Each structure stands twice: as structure tokens, then as C-alpha cells.
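This part of the workshop introduces the protein records we will be handling. A record pairs a protein's sequence with a compact description of its fold. As an example, a complete record with its sequence and its C-alpha cells follows.

_____
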Amino acid sequence: MKKMKTKIFPFFLIAAMLNSMVMVGFADESSRNSDCLENIEILYRNDSVSQNGQNADFSPYQGTPVQVLAESFLPDSTSVQVTDIIDGKTAVITGESGQIIWEVEVPQDGLYAVNVCYYPVEGHGGTIERHFTVNGEIVSKDFSFLAFNRIWKDEIDASDFEKDSRGNEIRPSQVESPRWVNLVLSDSTGYQQTPLTISLTAGVHRIALESVKEPLAIAYVELVAPQTLLTYDEYSKNIAGKAEATAQYIEIPAEHALEKSDSSLYAITDRTSPMTNPQDPSKIRLNTIGGSKWQNVGQKLTWEFYVEQDGYYHIALRFKKDLISGMFASRSLKIDDEILFEEVSALRFNYKGGWQLYDLGDENGTYSFYLEKGSHTVTMEVVLGDVADILGRTEDCLSRLNAIYRHILMITGL
């Protein structure tokens, strides 16, 4: 198979901050102490939302999506308004308070992921937040905080930035660029890296989105089969035998992102390497993006590119990770809004003082991506990667300690 190396992205990356890890253990000294600890555990379970809300006897749903149109909401919904068509879809706008409720016919017992088709209507410019409930209850603590990102872009869409009277490039203002987005609900903290699922029995259920912050337009909600990522070996087998492209080199300037999840993700200046283009010894040149602004879970950047031929392509990234000595950063990579295989769901960028070149691959070689002729997008999103499980268990330990502390206060009255 002829493999073509085609893309280089100059990135400036920063790792997510780590919290201290607390490990807690108990040793029973008597049967009385054992009873006490059992009661504390019961208190903890009752005092918090369940960790996953799953029924161990249910298997993942494998059927076609079960769609509920937003306009079919129940009469006891509050602060909702059916609007005219927005970009070809009938929209229901939910306010900054209240909830929108639907009834859905579930075809069989199983674990379902939830897809929401939403449009980030104008608000106060902040992240849109919602709760998700089933039959009036938040089935998992992960559904108690769901983030729906807005979409931002440079106000001036040009290949070159404007310059002031002294020849310095001017950072463009960030403006919203809303469009319809399909979002499979996921853990906004990043501790759980696979999409959230809910256990549902066959029959009619009531599902709802409760407003926490900012208005939101919705076209429909779907119960879908949970996605299982292929390994790279499985992906390679699926694309084997497809057409090969002749050599083509495509360089995408990272500072010219197509879309951003936050208005703080704008082009910045780096003068630490003459290889970073554009470069000038005395003038300001906006030649990178990211840095310390790009470190929160869920923040993402999207670029657009065009390939002239169907074929196999390699992806290389030029990046700098020089903050937080010894720590690594993690990013997921999507092509056309899809993670093609598991190995790119949490790419690792190691600490080093200067710029680095990362040809995506593993010890067995460089990854090949099959792309058809035409326009494509590549998206990189901040994820926790290898530290997600550690941080998740740390939070669980702290929740248990807090439950024990509250129980002590109840007994002592302090």
C-alpha cells in the first residue's frame, strides 16, 4: 500500500491541570465499626446521584435511532417556544429556566446513548448547560451537568490577517457562527471518555432537558446505539484495497481555524523558532493558536482542508508543549466530526522545551487515513486521556469523604 504523508499542523498545546490524588481505605476493628461503615456507605449512595445509572443485565442497543421531534413536547413543559424554520429545521427554543419534556417509545430493553440536534441561539455568550432526566430523575450524576458548546470564528475570514499602520498583524475579533450540531451526550468533566448511556426498559418513558444556563434551540432528540470505536487494525482492514493517491503535501496554518468552541481560542504570536511561519524579527505575526487558552476539557478547534484525490494520507502535527514540566497533554482527533479509530481518541503530546513534530502513529508505524476527494474537516478536542480514570476515582473518594463528614456532623451536631 502506498502511503502519502500530507498534512502538517503547527500547534501550541497545553496539558490539563492535575489534582492531587487521595486514596482512602478502612479497616474494621469490630462488628460495631463494620455496621457503622456499612451505614455510611448507604448514606453515601443515597446522598448522591448514582455513579452510572446502569442495569448490568442490559446490553447495548443495536437498532436504528429512535427519534423524537422537539416540537412534540408535552404540555407540562415550561419556558419553551416553537419558532419558524432555522436553517431548514423546525426549532423549539428553550429558555434559561424551565424544562422541555417528551414521551418516547422504547423498542426494547437496553443501554441507549442520547443524541441531541441543537442550535446555539444568541444568549449571553457563555457555554449552554442542561440537566437530562428520565421519568423525572437524573439517572446518573454525569447527566446533571451537560455542556452544549457555542461556535465561534474570526470576524474576518481571510488567509492573511489585517495589519496596522506599523505593519503588525491585528488579532481579529471573535464572532458567533451558529449552525445545527448533532451532539451525543458525554461527560462534561472528561472523567468518562465514552458517550453516556442510560438503561431503559421497553415501553413509554418521559425524557427531559432542564435548563441551567443560556437559551438553546432543539430540532430533535434521538436514542441511539452506543458507539464502539474500531481499533486501528480493524480500521485498516476496512479501508484495505481502496484507491491510492499520488504524492500531495497539504499544510494547514493552525492560526486560521475554521471553528472554535470558545471565543478565547484566537491566534497568538510565537517567536521561539524561525521555522514557525509567518515570522518577523520586529513585527507582530499571528502564527500559532492554543497555548494556555486551550486546556479545558471539551475545548475544540476545527480546520478545513481539501484533497484532490481519493487515497491514503498521513497526518503530522507541529506543536509545542512547554508548560507544566513533565506533564503531557491529550487531544482527540476527528475527521469530518468522526473519531475513525480508538488510537486517535486520546493522542498524547509529551512535554519538551521547544517545538516538536508528531507523525501520528505507534510503534508499528504511521497511521494511514483514507480520504475521498473534496473538502474535509479535522477537529482536535481537549480530553483527559490517561489521567481520566485517576481523576474520576479521586473525585469518587472525595465524594465519599464528604458523605462521611456530613454524617459525622449529623451525629455530633457540630
